[in-house]
C-alpha cells in the first residue's frame, strides 16, 4: 500500500506540474485566450489540484508535515471566497482577463475549503487540528474518492443504457428521435425538455439520486478507513477525518462543475457551496458510525451509512425533480399552481436539509471539540510546594 502511495503521489506531482506549466505557456502564445481558457481551463485547475495533492502526499510519506495545521480565520476565508466569486462576475461581464478565470475558481475553491474547515475545527484545541487527521483523508477526498465513485457511476450508467435500450421503444417510443434532435440542435444547450420524458427522468433519478449517493459515501469513507484502520482513533479524530474527506470531495466536485459551466462558473460556485455542507455532514455520519461500531460492536457502520446515503439521496433527488419542473417552464407560458407549490415545497425541503446538516456539523464539532480539550484545574500550579521528608516517609 505504501509503494502504491509513493507511485500515485509522484505521478500526481509530476503530471500536475507539467500540465499546468504547458497550459500557461500555451495560454501566453494563444491568439484567442477566451476560447483557449474555455477549452482547457478545467484541465489547468485540476492539474494544479493534482500537483498540490502530490506535494502534500509526498510530505506525508516522508513525515515532513507539521504536527498541527492552523486554519485561517472564518471571516477571512468567507471574504476571500466572495471576493474571488465577485471578481469572476466582473471578468465574465466585462470580457477582460479571461485567463484569470481558472485561477479565481481555484481561489474560490480554496477559500470555501478553508471556511468550512475553520467552522468544523472552531472548538478544537487552540483551533488547530492534527495534520494526519485532516490532510490524508482530505487528499483522498480530492483524488481517490472522485475516481472511485466516478468509475462506479460510469458502470451504473452503462448498465442502465444497456438495460434501457432493450425496452426503450416500448416504454417511450419517441425518445430516440427526441434525443437525436436534442443532440443535433446546437442551440439546445439550455433545453431541458428531454429530461421530462419518463425514461430519461427515471435514468437521472437512478444515477443522481441512488447510484451517486451509494458510491460517493462509500468512496469518501474509504479515506477515513485507510488512515485509521490500524490506529486507535478518538471520536473527535474520526469526526474531523470524515469532515476532511467529505470537504475535499465536495470542493473538487464543485470546482469541476463550475469550470464546466465556463462563463457561468461564478454562479455555479455560489450554488454549489451549500452542497459541501451536505457532503461533510454525510461523511461525518458514516465516520461516527464506524467509531461506535469499533467501541461497542453491532452494525452501527451500516446503519449510519444508510442514513448518510438517505441524506445525500434526498438532496440529489430534489435537485433532479427541480430540473424536471424547470424544464416545463420553457414550454408553458405561465407557471401552473401545482408547479408553483412543488417548487416552493422543494425549496423548503432544500432549506430543511441544509439546516439539518449545519446543525449536525456544528453540534458534533462543538461537543466533541470541547470533550477533546484537556481539563485544567484552576488551582493547579506548575511549581508544587516542596515536600519535607520525615523519618516516617521512608
Provide structural commentary:
The chain has 394 residues and is mainly alpha-helical. The chain is 78% helix and 2% strand. The chain has eleven helices and two strands, in the order H-H-E-H-H-E-H-H-H-H-H-H-H. The chain has helices spanning 2-29, 33-61, 74-94, 101-120, 131-171, 175-184, 198-228, 235-260, 265-296, 300-331, 337-372; strands spanning 68-70, 128-130. The radius of gyration is 25 Å and the shape is globular. The model is unreliable at 186-190 and 376-394 (pLDDT under 50).
Gyration radius, to the nearest Å?
A: 25 Å
Strand order of the largest sheet: 1-2
The whole-number mean of residue pLDDT values reads 83
Coarse shape: globular
Distance between the termini: 56 Å
Kindly name the structural category.
mainly alpha
Strand content: under 5%
Number of domains: 2
Roughly how much helix do the residues carry, as a percent range? over 70%
Given as residue ranges, the uncertain stretches (5+ residues, pLDDT < 50) are 186-190, 376-394
Summary keywords:
11 helices, two-stranded antiparallel ribbon, 2% strand, 394 residues, mainly alpha
